[in-house]
Design brief:
Blueprint (H helix, E strand, L loop, with lengths): L1 E10 L2 E12 L4 E5 L4 H4 L1 H11 L8 E7 L11 H11 L11 E3 L2 E2 L5 E2 L4 H11 L3 E5 L3 H4 L6 E5 L2 H8 L12 H7 L14 H13 L3 E4 L6 H6 L1 H4 L5 H14 L14 E2 L7 H5 E2 L4 E2 L1 H4 L4 E4 L7 H5 L2 H6 L1 E5 L4 E5 L3 E6 L18 H9 L11 E4 L5 H5 L7 H19 L12 H7 L4 H14 L3 H17 L7 H9 L4 H4 L1
Bound molecules: adenosine-5'-diphosphate, magnesium ion and zinc ion.
Zinc ion (ZN) binds next to loops.
Length: about 500
Amino acid sequence: MLAQVHSGALVGIDAHPVQVEIDVYNGLPAVTVVGLPDSAVKESAARVKSAIVNSGFPFPARRITVNLAPAGLRKEGSGFDLPIALGVLIGLGLLPSEKIGNYLIVGELSLDGSVKEVRGALSVAIAARDMGFQGIIVPESNMGEAAVVEGVDILGVSSLVTAVAFLTGRVAIEPAKPNLDQMAKNIGNYAVDFRDIKGQEYAKRAVEVAAAGGHNVLMVGPPGSGKTMLSQRVPTILPEPVFEEALETTRIYSAAGLLGKEKSIITRRPFRSPHHTVSDAGLIGGGAIPRPGEVSLAHNGVLFLDEMPEFRKNVLEVLRQPLEDGDVTISRAHIAVTFPARFMLVAAMNPCPCGYRGDPKHECLCSRQNIERYWAKISGPLLDRIDIHVEVPSVEWRDLTGKEESESSEQIRNRVNRARNIQLDRLSKHKIFSNSQMKSSLIKKYCSLGQDSLNFLEKVVERLGLSARAYHRILKIARTLADLEGSENIGSDHVSEAIQYRSLDRRYD
Ligand SMILES: Nc1ncnc2c1ncn2[C@@H]1O[C@H](COP(=O)(O)OP(=O)(O)O)[C@@H](O)[C@H]1O
Ligand SMILES: [Mg+2]
Ligand SMILES: [Zn+2]
């Protein structure tokens, strides 16, 4: 007898519909899986057989063919176990087939018949809603992430036996409900806060400006000056994520299998800090069927590259596409997958190999040649996409021990929000969201200077020998500074502060 069960396969962060067709007929006993499956799917046959037997169902010696359609779509993973097992039971006449057509079904089976979590359950729920299914049947442990999708029943099952009992109508399963109150409470609720950082007013200001305009930022300072500390707190001053952003971030983590124990929606902006030994696949994503890399795990948040000169050159090279486009495309023989990858880049480095050049309390023993070589590692295209440079000196002892209260992340975020809203009003008709994304025509349109500021900037550009690119960057940052102040016009004070954030231009342009 022929049975059909609806399931889904993950491509990037989208679930695509897959028909699981099972034919049970007389012949030499064997289970064959066809339809471009990977090895985990092929091994499904053995798991399904054990799960069925250990759940107390008979497994007669018949020939079983499992076809996963469409055949052109490459399928991976173990999520087809549950639909295959249910299809086999229908094929054997042990399960009625009426109800099963209303559901998209995914789940891995243990040999004992229990259902184990899968990657991408949230995307399966979204696909089911979009395709008009009544609901999805997923592992109980995946219910939390899927529950936020409205308009489709999210049914969690812990075992093959429960799934069968539900589909035969012997038990009812209560659809999962999202805990929206808890979600709302968690949005923008971080474990760290700018209040923890003593002193460093200049660096904090620079980071606020970067956050306000969506500018990438490079921090240069000796070890222990607080670069990591500052970077970790950047997500806390970015605008609170809206629901769609939280959903998108969660889909990426779900597809990567990184949602953690509670499997609930991610309500914070991510902070990713890959080690400098990361491979280019680790950074941008990879695998035979591509999984998201660090740039996508940082989507809607911050990608922090600590010790930037230590990263391999080819690894830094691959950052160019996501920095330019906000997404990343990974091509394989059978498939090209695009993942979202819009993040704020925060990079940090020491001023020299030993780290203490220019530090009043330590002697730097690096040779000029070594220092040149160190800096040469970061020149070029990547540096070109970093608008703001900030020097982070060692913290003064009296700042560290002082009683002075620092500003909270919330206070800073309120200013960032105001500046971002001004940018949205101005730029959304051009399909961009922040000043950092302006190209030269928009810079011309929105960053005009009064005569005084223009004269001043021209003088500086000439004296420092800055390039046209550097000039454009200064205008963009000045625009952000004016927006932070709620000022329509860019004044000469904005221009002169913007110039301070281009301290490395003299080195390169
Ligand atoms: N401005 C500061 N206020 C409070 N603590 C600080 C500050 N700067 C550094 N620290 C302390 O020093 C430690 C090292 O800072 P870190 O951010 O790791 O420095 P870096 O990344 O520049 O080497 C931090 O964990 C923190 O305890
Ligand atoms: Mg550090
Ligand atoms: Zn040194």
